[in-house]
Structure formats: structure tokens, C-alpha cells
Amino acid sequence: MLSLNEIALLYNSIPTPCAILKPDKPGYTIAAVNRAFLSATNTHSSALVGRRFFDAFPINQDDDGSRTLTIHRAFDHVLTDKTPCVIRNHRYNLPAASESDEDVRYWNIETYPLLDEEGTIHYIVQSSTDVTTLFKAEKKLTDNALKMAQEINERKQIEQKLQLSNERYYYVNKATDDAIYDWDIALNFIHWGEAFFRWFGYAEDDRFSIEKWAALVHPEDIPALECSLNTTLDDPLKNSWTVSYRLKRADGVYTFVEENGYVLRDQQGRATRMIGVLRDISGRKKAQAELESLKDTYSDLFQLSPLPMWVYDLDSLMFLDVNEAAMVHYGYTKKEFLAMSILQIRPEEDWPILVGTIRNEVRHGLFHASEVRHLKKSGEVIQVNIRGNSIRFGEKQARIVVATDVTELKKSEQALRNSERRFKTLIQEGSDLIAIIEMDGYCKYVSPNIERVLGITLEEFIGYNAFNFIHEADRDVLIQEFELLNSKKQHEVAPFRYVDKQGKIHWVETVITDMRDDEAIGGIVCNSRIVTERVENELKIKEHLDRYNAVSKATSDSIWDMDMVADRLLWNYGIKAIFGYQETAYDHQWWHDRVHPDDIERVEQLIGHNMIHKIPRWTSEYRFRCADGAYKYVLDRGFLIFDEHTGQPVRMIGAMQDITEKVAYTKAVEAHNVRLREIAWTQAHLVRAPLARILGLISLLDDPDNDDQTRQTARSYLLQSATDLDEIIKEVINKSHEALKESVQ
User: Fold this and answer.
1) Three-state SS at 270
2) Are 544 and 571 in contact (CB under 8 A)?
3) Computed over its alpha carbons, how large is the radius of gyration of the chain?
4) Could you say which EC number(s) this protein's record lists (predicted)?
5) 185: closest CA among 278, 257, 268, 275?
6) Pick from 47, 346, 360, 581: CA 20 to 30 A from residue 310's CA?
7) pLDDT tens-digit map of 495-524
8) CA 483 to CA 656: how far, in whole Å?
9) Are 255 and 249 in contact (CB under 8 A)?
10) C-beta atoms surrounding 58 within 10 Å
11) 279, pLDDT greater than 70
């Protein structure tokens, strides 16, 4: 028997919508659906697979239970008889976007089992063909035919009533919905019955002139209407007038009407009066348009079908029509097909069987299906499923047939059986353990590889409580994990310890699935894998991380470990204590986004340079963003580890130290030095200028050759220079005080 994945893959190639169900009566869990099924039902596989069939497709609101019972009976038939069951024109309304509305659909449903070599049912396939359009089209044709027959009958009745007396005319005019009129040609006014004003919305007017009526006729219809009317009125031998045209209602909308008039003439044969009836035929026009559309639809359904289809004469067995798909698939042209009988697409040795089937099983109006051999033009023999029903093709009794080539399907079924044998081998030789246990832990089944994997025989495990083999410290936790299946279908159990006969501990990872409602299983399916090496490595890593965290609490370093292959960045406790982040596992992009934008290029160039030149150690200072958005200055020291075979970097370990205070102190010292340099420059340059002037002026005052005017001028300059020198000295003193304050801070 094929695996479910192989079955699903097989059915995905089939254009017919199919759902693959588990035979777990009464639930019938949906195991898989093909793409055609999802397209037909406008659903997603995630909304269907794993759900019970009647949960995924609940009973319609308008279903009294009979339609759902039909599906139940089909499933029961397949489970009991192991043969297909066909349901035709089954109504099931798919849920629409609005809860108040439903998508009304009709289906031809074929339900059949998937059996293994021993005849055991492993899955039930429900193949559904949407025949909504065909069903509705047939119903519309029937309804329209009845409607047209009814209208024709009403027309005859009205024509008879027109011949009655004026008194009966009055009462008929009151009772009928047709617009009865009486046109006095000589006086040129039309008397309309009440129905006219009801239909067309005009106010009642006894003097309705012919010109007023003509103004309501559609302009495009006036020329033909006038010609027809005048021809009738001018011919003394004509008394009846029938015409259809468009007439405008009071709301401005034109509607199609049909008018039947009877002309009364005087002794000279001149028309003096016309009595008639006007009826709305918009519905008939619409029905005719729909009928033409349905004819096109029927043609499209036949000609554009992706499956080969043909029509043949039940008497002569000659082909009457074939679609494009049949011509492509069988290799004959349409002309060649129409010159052949259906016998010629069968191997000659199958002709007696075909003739016998047509005589004994094909009945008018009854659907018939069978699997037969067909012959292509190339001589290739193929296996096909044919489905047919009776139709009328012109004047001939004919049969329409749809053919599905199942040659590849048959090959796939054989491959499925081969795959089932491979599956049994894989179960015995695989590394995964599969077991079925009851809720209390007692084992019902375990795969034969248990002895190879865990060193215990089947006899020592089946019938015994599996929980007794679990480490005491993990046993109660595992039992609680199993109890979760009371609220969900499947659960993944965290690794636990299994103790073998020699006392050796194995770590086991298990997925448990509740299959107690499946009659074939009736327990908890455990899919287990030995993960001892992985768990022990994880415990070692955790031990190292705990050690890192202990170190980080004693230092201001945040230790990190980058797995460059898996792109996984692990941090110790310092990432929380120093920078405020709550998680300890990130990726490279997370670190990249938190390095200051002005620093990231410089840091990555440094690391990239070391990777290229295989330099393991690197050190860099940069700004790193904390969880609150503030930046801290860090000193980051990294160590690169390279793969010994490829030379590529595979891991990088480092320590990040917060040096924010150190950087702030360094910047303060640099600022203080700038102040001192400014004071020194002031003393060296600004003080020298007024002091030099003072020294020069003193020499002028001491010179006995200078007159009093010169000495007076020198004194004024001496006073100005002294004042300038005093201001400069004050500025030097102020800057010295500011530098002293910054130094103290």
C-alpha cells in the first residue's frame, strides 16, 4: 500500500476533485485532498486536512437530513461491500463569504475504497464532479418551456375574449393583467384598459391619441411599426395585426411588448376601429436570450471539455460528434471519427463484449459506467473509464460518452503496491520507532526495529506498560504530556530519558497522535527518535552558558558566541545586565542593526579583513544601542574560528566591555587640555602686544628731546595700553577659573 504522500501526489495529477478519507467511521477524517478539490470548493488544504469530513462539510440549513444520510449510506456501502458507490445530482451548498448565504451546488459523487493486497480498506476516496451548471441549465430549459407554453395559452385565451361582447369586454378589462385597448380610428383616440396604466405608470386618460402613443414607441422601431400598421389598415382583406416593439414606461425605461389587434371595417372595407391587447414580453425576450446562451454553454461544455467526449448513434453505433480533446487523445481527425463506429476504437476481440453491454446494460435515461480497453490511431491500447447517458441528437436516439484515460493510474496502483512493500521494509530497518500504546501506557504494537535501537525484544515490550521504562524523574511529566491528548489531536513531547535493560540512559524525542477513534489503530501512535547525542550536547552548551553567566555577573563583560553557519548569536547574562535586552539568542542582523550607523562600516571592514587574511583576533571600539534606545561605548574583542578543511570562518566568540565612562573621561581631559592651550596662547600673544606698546611709550617719556605735546600724547597711549593689558589679564584669570572648575568636575 502506498504512503499517504504518494497517494496524494498521485491524485494531484487527476483533474477530478478528490478527497482521501480515513475509514474511521463515523468521523471519516480527511487525510488529503487534491488540487482540483481545493479549486472546486474554493478552500485551502490547511482548513480541511485532519478534520472530520462532516465537520469540514456540515449539514446545509435547508437539508432535512436526507441529503447527508445519502453520503452516510455511500460510506457505509463502501465499508461493507468494498465496492464503489455513485450518487448523481447530489445537492450540497458550499459555505459562502456571508453566513446568510450559501453557494448552491450540485455534484456527481463517486465513492470507492483503496484496498491493500489482503483486501483491507486503508482509505476511502470521494470523487466529486461539479454539475451545477448542467443541472441549472436543464432546469432553466424546463422552466422556460413551461413559461412559454403558458404564455401561448394565455395569448389564445385573450384572443378569444376579444371576440366577446362589450359587456364582457368591460369585465375582462377589469380582471386581466394584459393591456386591452380600443382604438377609434375615425375620432383618433385610444381607450386603454386599467392594466396599461398599472404596467406603464401613466395617469389614466380616456383621450389617448395615436400621436401620443407613437411618441412612446422607441425611435428605432417606428419605421417598421408604421409600415406594418398602414399595410394592415389599407388592406380590406386583413383584420388581424400582430407586432412586437419597444414602448417607454413612465420612468423612461423601454420594455418589449407584443401587440395583437383586430381591425373592424365599414361596408366599404375601410378600417374604423381596432380592438387589441398589449402584453409585456420582456421575460420571454430574456428567456430566449438565455436559451441561446445555454445552447452556447452546452456547446462549450462539450467542445472545451479537457476530457475526451463523443456522441454516437444507438442504432448504427456511428460517431455523430466528437470534441477536440478526443481528437487530440486518440489521434483521429473529426472527419475520420465521423466515418467510424465506436467498435473501431476497441480491440477487435472486445467487440462482442461492447455489443453485449449496449444490448443488456445501456438503457435510455440511465447512467452507465465501465472500465474498458480503447485503441488509439497509433495502435496503442489504453485503459479508460467511460461514463455515458442517453440524449437526443437531432432526430436520433444517441448516447453521450465521457472517457477518462486511467492507463497511468493503473500503473500507479501497481507502483503503490510496490511502494507498500518498500514501506514495510523501511519500518523494519528505519531509525525511528513507531509504537501504539493505550492511554494508561500499555503497549499494543511496536515496530520490529526496537531491539536494534533500544536493545529490547518485541515480547518484552508489547503488553507491558511503556511508562515503566521511563526514568523516574521524567515519568510523571510524560504522563501529563499524554493527558494533553484529551484536548488536542497531536502533541510533540519534549525529550525524556529511557532506561534500557543494562541501565543505560537514552534520550528520546516523541510525537504522539491520538488515534483512539480509528478502529484500525485504537490507541496513541508514538513516533520516537533517539536524540541522546543532541541532548547531551545541548546540556553541555547550557553548562557553558551558565558558566559564562556566572563570569558576566562578576565582570562588566558581555560574552557572545556567533555560529556563522547557522547565523545564530548567543549571549550570556551580560546582554541583559549591561544593555537591558531580555532575550539571549539573536542573529547577525540583530547585532548589525544596533551598532551606531557611523561605526558599523568601520567595524565590519575590520572583521572582514581578518576573515580574508585568516587573522583570528580583532579588537574594536564602537557605539552599541541599548534596549532603551541610548548608546553605550563598548570595547569589543573577538576571536575567529576557521574550518580546518575549507578555511572558511565558522564561529566567532568574543567579549563586549562597557567603556562609556572611560570614553567620557577621556573626552573631558581632552576638552580641559584645549582650554589650557587657549590660556597659554593668550598669555603668549595677546599680553605681549599691549606690554610692548607700554615699554615703547616709557622710552618716549624718558627722552629729554621730546616736547610736552609729544609726552602728553605718549601718556594717553600709555593709559590705553594699560587698560587693554588689564582686560586681557582679566580674561586669562576667568579662563583659568573655568578650566579649574571643569577639572574638578
Assistant:
1) coil
2) no
3) 49
4) 2.7.13.3
5) 275
6) 360
7) 998 888 778 888 988 999 998 888 878 899
8) 46
9) yes
10) 10
11) yes
Calpha distance 736→405 (Å, rounded): 103
- Among 618, 483, 638, 454, smallest CA distance to 557 is for 638
Distance between CA atoms of 606 and 111, rounded to whole angstroms? 68
* Interatomic CA distance for residues 290 and 141, integer angstroms: 9
Q: How far apart are CA 388 and CA 379, in angstroms?
A: 24
To the nearest 10°, the Cα dihedral for 332, 335, 339, 342?
A: 40
Residue range 48-58: mean pLDDT, rounded: 90
The torsion angle over the Cα atoms of residues 288, 289, 295 and 296, rounded to 10 degrees, is: 170
- Give the integer Cα–Cα distance in Å for 89 and 131: 7
Q: What share of the chain is helix, strand, coil (3-state, %, to 5)?
A: 45, 30, 25
200: which residues sit within 8 A by CB, 6+ positions away? Answer: 179, 216, 247, 248, 249, 250
Cβ neighbour number for residue 112 with a 10 Å cutoff: 18
Query: What phi and psi, each to the nearest 5 degrees, are found at residue 311?
Result: -120, 135
Q: Residue 131: which H helix or E strand, with range?
A: none
Q: Are 114 and 121 in contact (CB under 8 A)?
A: yes
Half-sphere exposure of 455 (CA within 13 A, CB side): 10
- The number of beta carbons lying within 10 Å of the beta carbon of residue 741 is 9
SS (H, E, C) 397-417: EEEEEEEEECHHHHHHHHHHH
Contact between 131 and 106 under an 8 Å Cβ cutoff? The reply is yes
Element (H, E) at 684: none
Is the omega angle on the peptide bond into residue 308 within 30 degrees of 0, that is, cis?
Answer: no
Cell of 119: 483486501
Q: Is the model's pTM score more than 0.70? A: no
- Give the relative orientation of helices 708-744 and 660-681 as an angle to the nearest 10 degrees: 170
- What is residue 59's DSSP assignment? P
Query: How far apart are the C-alpha atoms of 733 and 721, rounded to whole Å?
Result: 18
> How far are the Cα atoms of 558, 652, 656, 658, 698 from residue 636, in angstroms, in the given order?
9, 12, 4, 9, 65
Say if residues 482 and 524 touch (Cβ distance below 8 Å): yes
Q: Is 652 exposed, middle or buried (0-12, 13-18, 19+ CB in 10 A)?
A: buried
Checking if the pLDDT of 377 tops 90, the result is yes
pLDDT value, residue 666: 76
Sequence length of the chain is 745
**Strands of the sheet with 271-280, listed across from one edge:** 189-192, 179-184, 271-280, 254-265, 240-248
| Exposure string for 203-227, b = 16+ CB within 10 A, e = fewer | eeeeebeeeebeeebeeebeeebee
DSSP structure string for 243-257: EEEEEE-TTS-EEEE
Cα–Cα distances (Å) from 239 to 156, 233, 266, 457, in that order, read 16, 8, 12, 107
- Tell me the three cell numbers of residue 675: 582650554
DSSP conformation class of 76 = H
For the beta carbon of residue 124, count every other beta carbon within 10 angstroms.
23
Distance CA 389, CA 108 (A): 13
Angle between helices 688-702 and 708-744 in degrees, nearest 10: 160
Residue 199 pLDDT > 60, yes or no? yes
Asked whether residue 419 carries a pLDDT value surpassing 60, the answer given is yes
- Whether the per-residue pLDDT at 645 is higher than 80: the answer is yes
Q: Has residue 608 got a pLDDT over 90?
A: yes
Q: State residue 479 phi and psi, 5-degree precision.
A: -60, -40
Calpha distance 45→38 (Å, rounded): 7
Q: What percent of the chain has pLDDT over 90?
A: 29
H-helix or E-strand containing 262?
strand 254-265
CA distance 32 to 37: 10
Collapse the DSSP code of 500 into the 3-class scheme (helix H, G, I; strand E, B; otherwise coil) and give the result: coil
Angle subtended at Cα 389 by Cα 383 and Cα 390, rounded to the nearest 5 degrees:
135
